[in-house]
Structure formats: C-alpha cells, structure tokens
Design a protein that fits this description.
Helices cover 39% and strands 14% of the residues. The protein is globular, with a radius of gyration of 36 Å.
C-alpha cells in the first residue's frame, strides 16, 4: 500500500543502509522514469553540443583532440541505458512520451511555429458515442452498420427493410401505399435511437461529474509540451474556443462557487520551519485551506496534506533529492507530471513567502551553489506561477498538479514529492473497479436471430421460385396471356420480367420476416427493466436505493443461470472482521460465540448455547470486568472500549499478574501484532482528541488485528522510515524497520524485519498455519505446536479465520548477507518475482510460534434465505474461498450452502493419483445412490442432494487435463461445491472449466 525509496543516484551503492526498505518494483520503475530520463536528456543535449563544436573545429583539429580539449560529454559517466530508451528502439513497440518541464523544447520536436509536433489529448473523460450535432447521422449509421456481433443481424434486418421501402416507391413493382410501408422501419429506428440516446445521456452525466470536478494545477507558467494556442485557424478567425489567457465559463463558475463557500488555496507563513533560499533570504510556505478573508479556519500546513499518486519518494538527510551539487546528472530536465513541492521550486524563486518549508530539503538547499536535480538555481525566473483551481478536464500533459485528500488522480503521473515527512504516498484503490460490458449475446437473441434467418431463407426461396416460374411461362408462345394480358409485361425481356415479378413477390411476402419483432423485443426489455427498478423485493432499505439496471438488455438472461460462482469474503460475508479469539503459548482466550458455532449446535441438536440476546448481555459484563482489570494494571490512552471485540477476563488477569510466566508470552504476542503489518495510523482529531487512533489497511484482517492489539494495551502509534512507534502497556517503544516482505496469494504470509530497542534484529512472520508450520525450527517445542494446532482447529470449526504468528532472531551477519541477496533479487529484471520469493524463503525459516489469531467475518443479512431460494430454483452454487477447509465447511453450514441431508464428500489429496481415486470414489458414490441415470431414477431421487468440498492442493490436481473431465462430471452432479485455499488463478480456471465444459450460462461474483 505504501512505498518509499531513495532518490539520489549513488555510484558506490550502500547495501547495508537501513533506509533501503523499498518496493523494488516501484524503485526500478520510478528511477527509470525520472532519474534515468533526466540523465538521458542531459547526455543527449551534451552530445548535440559536442557534435556542433566538433563540426566547427573539424578542419583544424583533424580526427583526434588533445586531452585538454575534451568535451563535457567525455567526462560524463556512462551508466547503462535506461530500460525505456531500449524499448523505444524496439520495432513495433510503443513510443514513450518525453515530457519537458522548465527546459526549452528541442528543435527536432518543434513545428515551424515553435509549438510541439506531438499533440497530446487532455485529461477529459468521454465514454459517450454521440454529441448533439452527431447524434442523428451517427446513430442512423450505427443502426445500419453494427460493428458488434451482438447487433450484427439487427443491422442486416434494418438494411433489408430499408431496401423494401425504397423499391416500393417505384410504381413498377405495384406497391399500394409506399408511405405506409415505411412506418415500421421508422418506428424501429426512432425507438432504438431513443434507447441509445437515453443510455448515452446517462453516460454523459457520469462523465460530467468527473470532468467538472475540481483540480489544482500550477498556472501562469509555460508548459512547453502544449501549444501556445491550441485553437484551430478557424476558431482563431471567429474568436471562439478556449484562448490561452481566457478563463472558461466552467472554471469561472467553479471558482465563484468555492469562493462563496469560503474555500481558498493560499500560501501561508509557517513559523515552525524555515529554509534558506539561494539569495540568502529566509522564506517559508505551506498549503492551507482557510476562509476567504483569511480568518476563522484552521490552517493546514503542507505536512498536514496527504498527497496521493502512483509513485512516492523518500527524503532524508542521507539520500537527498535533488542530488548533491556537482552531480552531472542533476540538471533541470524531467519527464514528469508531478505535484506539490517541486512545482513551486521549478516555477518560482525561493524568495520571501515563496520558499517551501520542509526539513528534508535543508541540507541540500544550503549547499546549493549550482544545479540540484530538477532545480536549476542559476536560472532567472519571473516567479509569477501560482496554484489555481481548474476543472479535471482542463488538465494537460505536462501540467504540475497539487493532489490533496480525496482528490482524483490523473492517469500517468510521477510524484516528485509529498507532504509526508518521509516522502510517503498512499493510494486507496477500493473505488478503482471499473465497470466493463463484456456481456455476450443472450440465448433469446441467438434464437431470435436464428428464426429470422430461417424465415429469410424461406422468403428468398419463395421469391426465386416465383421469379423462375414467371420467367418460364412468360417465355412460352401461343398461351392465353397473349389474349388476356395484353401489354401486361413491363418489357419484352423475359429475364427482366422475371426480376420484376420476384421483387413484387418480395414485397408481397415481406411479412414472413416480421418487421415488428425487434421493436417488440425492445419494448418488452424496456418494460422489464422498469419492473426490475420498481420491484419492492429488490429495494434495499439501509441505503434507500432500488435496483438500477445498468442496461435494458439485463432481462435477456433472467431465469437461465445454471451455475453461480462466488467468493466468500465480501459476498456472503460483510468483510467486517472482528477479533474474537486467540491462542498464546498454547492457551486459548476469547468468550465470543460465532454464527457458525450456533449453526453447529443446532445441527447437533444441542441446546446448551444461550440466545443471542443473553449472550450479548453476558459479553458486556465480561468486557466490563476485563476493562477494569486492565485499567488497574496499566494505563492505555488509546483504548477504544466500543471497538473491543476480544473479550476475555482471563487475558486481563494474565496480563496483570507479574508473577505469571504467561504474561511475557502475551506481551511478545501482542507486540508482534502491533509491529508485523502494513497498517497506517491516522489521528482524525489531533488537537481535540490526540489519542483517538484509526487504522487504514490493505485488508480488514490487518486492521482488526492491530485494533485488537491497541485495545488490549499494545497500540501501534506511528510508522516512519526511522521507526515504528508502539506502546507496550503504557510504555513507549520504538523499533527500526529494516525490511518488509509483503503478503500475496502465493506466499500466504508476510514478514517484517525490525531492530528492537535493545539493538537485536527480529523477524516477525504471520500467515496461514500450513505455511508457518512448514517453516518452523527443527528444535521447536512439540507440545506447543500441537496445542496451537489444536486451538486453530477449534477456531476453524467455529467458522473463524485463523492466522499463525511466529518470530525468530537474526544475527547481524546473517541479516546483512541475506539483505544483499534480497536487494539483488529485487533489482532483477528477469524472473523478478521468483527471485524475490526465493530470497524471502532464505530468511523465513527456523521460526518459533508465538500464537494464533481467530477473526470472524459475519454473514451478510439475508444470505441463508437467498441461498435456500437459489437451491429451490435448481441453481448450483460453487463457492471459491481462501479459507481453511474446516472454516469453509462451518460457514457453509451456517449460510445454508451445506445441509444436514446432503451427502458431503471431502476431497483432500497430496498427489494426482490420490486425487483421481477420491474423485472416482465420489462418482461411484453418486451412481450407487442414484442408480443408472434414467428418467425414472432421476424423478425418484430428485430430493437427494450432494456436495463436494475440495482444498486448493487437490483442486490443482483436479484441474489437470487428465482429471478435468472426471472433476467436471462430479462437480456438476452436486448441488454445492466448496473450493478452499484457492488462489485467484484457480478461481478463474474453475469457472472456465464449467462454462466451457457444460456450455452453460454462469454467473460469477467476486474476484
């Protein structure tokens, strides 16, 4: 979720630096985009200057130059060319953008009038097809030429009806009323056009919301990547369009609205910090939001503003950016679209009121005598650049953008600096799920098109037959036609007469291909979409919203779904985690009762559990007892009693008893929870409530674990590149972060390496029990392993999500030797992920168990009832989850996925042969119960149901080509299939197996 790295180019390298905690992929990508591109640009400029000097001196100096006449280029270091430059030279590869900031545009990139040759599109989002001027012609064109296979035959039908309307205009074909004949086609075109217009208008409304949102960019400076006047010669002649110095109506309305609301972005004095500018004056600056008159609002300094973007940089005293003076690579070229501090540095002098206040720049700026990275202090600039409010759609390539909390992020940006003291940058990605329309043609449409095609073939056969017969009899002589049909033929040509007769029959028989069929279907779809929107059973009261059909074609597939594939977290459950239980050194804590436990007791016929209301009262009493005991033992300033979910008076008792040996184990366990994570701590009200901590995390699991540690007395307070601040029962502790080995679906674990206050290096690792147990030390206490495993099994039986917490100490030599290996893997270009995984495996071994956690993810409201309804409708459910097998089984029972009357078959194998035997055994069991698949036996055993529960390792064997047919046959005969411990890739393969293997219509929900 966050990354930081060093911006300075270091020729010697420093493998042992403690601040080298970097997302290697991010470091590699960003240095290639920013630092290496700057260096490459400078080298190119120096090469061109050297070639010009060489050409002037060629006649007198000959082929060789004395040493004292070498060019600047000769003294430049020649590092390996950046990856982007190599990519540019690849034939057929994408051309890399070259953006210039505060440097003149090279001559080869300029047109005759000095504007850039490359024309970039602006930031405006447009997903609509039409405008007011192009709607009628373009929509008609689209209706007669559908490029999508979904509407291919519709366009053919429209063309067919259009040809009929045209030929009926000619009297020779004997049409009675050509004007009436065109009405069906006109109605079809109007109705389809109206539907397309409404859908396009909705898309336009959503586009306008994004395009007209507010943004802040640097104004009154020259962006050389854009033309001085983007208008065409006609717009300039007529005086229309957006002139360079003209404020558009939309921008003016935005500024007036914000001014009326009392919002203004200004640069203000910050007395807490100062920075020495090149001319010897001291100046400070920060960004703030205040009222229009400058009073009445709390000013927010730059450090209070959280910038967001795709890259982030770390600033510290050791590794400064811009680079130190004298670095030949540190000049004023950049390839970027950036924000915040560098914007002011690149656009104006650090004069009074304009200097940018940040401690991290002090050392580098005070030593500035020449050029520092992208800042050229020798340049004379007017200093007129100011932040200005504008619209999202007005942002251009090369603009410098200021991003703050909750601002939208432009595409393809490079962040040069942030407001965070450590140069960190965070992006929340929960709203980045784009909506795509990849829906194939529905069965109704396929069958309709097939029937229309068959009708059309019959019609053409009748027309051709009629024309041939007419031509045959017209060619005969001495028939009655010579007496009774005098001058009835349009010409003396038998062939032409046959053609005219065929066209006339085409007009007469045209009703065989129903013109009203398509418009009738469109009307039915529209009415059904309206009914869906108005259905009271689909109204969701908590959000006060009804079902909103995104497309009118949604009713095509209703009632035709045969299989539903769904993940568990966030779909069946609320994705709101509660820390219910834990096991520390073989001792289990936690008094909560989960929904799965209640379901299990109900299945077993036990009545020893309290009702939910009684259980809630009991937990409140126990929570109060626990809080009283902890308050007597230590002071927890960050306690949030309302969020305490781990209720255990025994835990408080063991923590309070200094003579109890379990106390040290509890402290080590919760200390690990407070350190081993990637959570961010946020103080929403730092002045009014300084001890109110909220946590933001990549997953709700991590936030729940850290929050539980906080409420028990081990709060995580803050994290910087210099330290991780926590409190242990009221005592502050700081740990120095060294490495973070992040979690992914393949590793199923995460680790952090820190230096504790005593100077020792510790590795904390948490992950799935199977992964952690495989990496335990050989001399590990066997009794502790068995006790913890037993507790985790009990937690899983209660439907809880378990994690195992472990640790190990590292020696200085071991860590530094491994660190070099890991850094080399992180910098690898080929097979980087595999190299990192191998490096992580070298250090994540010899672990010792601290304990285990158990989280509950509560079911969403109405899930059991909905699943029961789906079962009654004959829809088969496949649940694909990453939970343990037993956890998934208990959750399945609690939400009606699995029932007591189901024959549940559990597949868990450690080899392909074992998997084959178990799958074949399941098929034999179904055959023995149901008998031969005849109509009578199917009707007689219609109430018998089966379910399969399979773990990830066995599923990997089952998806092999040799076992696919068997597993598909077994799974499709079951009402429910639960796949546990599966990766996202296995989920996709499972859906593909059923969808293609059974040619069935499926519904997939989740990832």
């Amino acid at each position: 979720m966050s990354s930081f790295f060093r911006r300075q180019h270091n020729d010697q390298g420093d493998d042992t630096d403690e601040d080298n905690q970097v997302d290697p992929e991010l470091r590699l990508r960003t240095t290639q985009t920013a630092h290496s591109t700057i260096a490459e640009s400078i080298r190119q400029e120096n090469r061109r200057a050297a070639r010009r000097r060489k050409s002037r001196k060629w006649g007198s100096k000959g082929l060789f130059k004395p040493k004292h006449q070498r060019t600047v280029e000769d003294d430049l270091p020649r590092p390996t060319e950046p990856l982007e430059a190599a990519q540019d030279e690849q034939p057929g590869g994408p051309q890399r953008r070259r953006i210039h900031v505060n440097v003149p545009l090279p001559l080869e990139l300029q047109s005759s009038n000095g504007d850039p040759k490359t024309d970039y599109v602006r930031n405006k989002v447009r997903t609509t097809k039409y405008t007011l001027l192009t709607f009628v012609p373009k929509n008609l064109y689209e209706q007669f030429r559908r490029s999508s296979p979904r509407y291919a035959f519709t366009s053919v039908a429209n063309l067919y009806f259009l040809v009929l309307v045209v030929v009926q205009v000619w009297p020779i074909f004997g049409a009675a009323a050509p004007q009436v004949a065109m009405l069906p086609l006109v109605v079809i075109l109007l109705a389809t056009g109206a539907k397309d217009g409404v859908e396009d208008y909705r898309r336009s409304t959503l586009d306008d919301e994004v395009n007209n949102s507010a943004a802040t960019k640097l104004g009154a400076w020259r962006n050389v990547n854009q033309p001085r006047d983007p208008r065409t010669w006609l717009e300039k002649l007529l005086g229309i369009g957006s002139a360079p110095d003209r404020v558009t109506k939309g921008v003016r309305k935005l500024r007036e609205k914000e001014a009326a609301e009392g919002k203004n972005i200004v640069l203000v004095k910050n007395d807490s910090e100062s920075v020495t500018s090149p001319n010897g004056q001291d100046g400070t600056a920060s960004i703030s939001e205040s009222t229009l008159n400058g009073a009445g609002g709390r000013q927010r300094s730059l450090e209070d503003i959280q910038s967001v973007g795709s890259h982030s940089f770390s600033f510290d005293q050791t590794h400064n950016y811009p680079p130190i003076p004298g670095d030949p690579l540190g000049t004023s070229a950049a390839t970027l679209q950036a924000n915040v501090k560098d914007a002011i540095e690149q656009s104006g002098q650090f004069g009074k009121g304009m200097g940018y206040s940040t401690t991290s720049f002090k050392s580098s700026i005070k030593t500035s005598g020449g050029t520092l990275g992208v800042v050229d202090w020798s340049r004379q600039v007017p200093g007129t650049a100011r932040w200005e409010r504008t619209l999202w759609k007005k942002l251009e390539v090369g603009d410098i953008v200021l991003l703050r909390d909750n601002d939208q992020i432009p595409a393809d940006i490079v962040v040069l600096s942030t407001s965070d003291a450590d140069g960190l940058c965070y992006v929340e990605t929960k709203n980045l799920d784009g909506e795509t329309n990849l829906k194939p043609r529905s069965k109704i449409e396929k069958e309709t098109n097939f029937n229309v095609i068959m009708n059309f073939i019959i019609l053409m056969c009748m027309v051709v037959l009629t024309a041939v017969v007419n031509g045959y009899y017209d060619g005969k002589r001495n028939t009655s036609a010579a007496v009774y049909e005098i001058d009835a033929d349009v010409s003396s040509s038998h062939v032409l007469n046959a053609v005219v007769t065929g066209v006339s029959c085409l007009i007469a028989f045209q009703n065989i291909v129903p013109a009203s069929l398509y418009i009738s279907i469109e009307i039915v779809k529209t009415i059904q979409a309206y009914f869906i929107n108005q259905d009271i059973d689909m109204y969701y009261e908590p959000y006060d919203t009804c079902c909103v059909p995104k497309t009118w074609n949604i009713s095509d597939d209703l009632g035709q779904i045969e299989y539903i594939f769904s993940d568990k977290t966030g779909t069946l459950t609320q994705n709101v985690m509660e820390f219910q239980k834990c096991s520390v050194h073989g001792v289990a804590y936690g008094e909560g009762i989960t929904e799965a436990m209640r379901g299990q007791a109900k299945r077993e016929g036990r009545s020893d559990l309290m009702s939910p209301v009684e259980q809630g009262r009991k937990l409140e009493v126990q929570k109060e007892e626990m809080l009283q005991k902890m308050s007597k033992a230590f002071k927890n300033r960050y306690l949030r009693p309302d969020q305490l979910t781990l209720v255990s008076p025994q835990l408080a008792e063991d923590l309070s008893d200094r003579s109890n040996p379990q106390r040290s184990h509890l402290i080590a366990f919760f200390r690990a929870l407070a350190i081993c994570h990637t959570v961010l701590a946020e103080k929403k009200e730092p002045q009014e409530r300084p001890f109110l901590l909220d946590y933001k995390a990549e997953s709700p699991d991590e936030a729940a674990l850290v929050a539980a540690a906080r409420d028990v007395g081990f709060p995580f307070v803050n994290k910087t590149s210099q330290g991780i601040d926590i409190e242990v029962m009221g005592q502050a502790e700081r740990y120095i972060p060294l490495k973070v080995l992040e979690f992914n679906s393949t590793r199923k674990r995460m680790s952090v390496i820190v230096r504790n206050p005593e100077g020792k290096i510790i590795l904390y690792c948490k992950g799935a029990d199977s992964v952690i147990y495989a990496r335990l030390a050989a001399d590990h206490d066997q009794e502790l392993k068995e006790a913890t495993a037993k507790d985790m099994e009990t937690f899983a039986n209660g439907g809880l999500r378990t994690l195992c917490i472990s640790y190990r100490y590292l020696t200085e030599e071991e860590y530094f030797e491994w660190s070099r290996t890991y850094d080399a893997a992180a910098a690898a270009v080929k097979d980087r992920e595999d190299e990192i995984e191998r490096a992580a495996a070298l250090i994540e071994r010899g672990l010792y168990i601290l304990g285990a956690t158990a989280l509950e993810d509560k079911l969403q409201e109405g899930v059991p009832e909905a699943i029961e309804t789906l079962h009654q409708a004959g829809i088969k459910l496949w649940i694909l989850t990453g939970d343990k097998l037993q956890t998934a089984i208990e959750i399945g029972y609690s939400c009606n996925l699995l029932k007591n009357d189901m024959e549940v078959m559990i597949l868990s194998a450690d080899s392909a042969d074992a998997a084959r035997m178990q799958i074949e055994g399941g098929l034999n069991k179904i055959a023995s119960v149901l008998g031969p698949p005849t109509r009578e036996t199917m009707q007689a055993n219609v109430k018998r149901s089966f379910a399969v529960v399979i773990d990830g390792d066995t599923l990997r064997y089952a998806l092999d080509e040799s076992l696919k047919p068997l597993f598909l046959n077994l799974g499709t005969q079951c009402d429910t299939v639960v796949c546990c411990r599966v990766s996202p890739a296995q989920k996709a393969l499972t859906v593909k197996l059923v969808k293609e293997g059974r040619n069935a219509m499926t519904l997939s929900i989740g990832d």
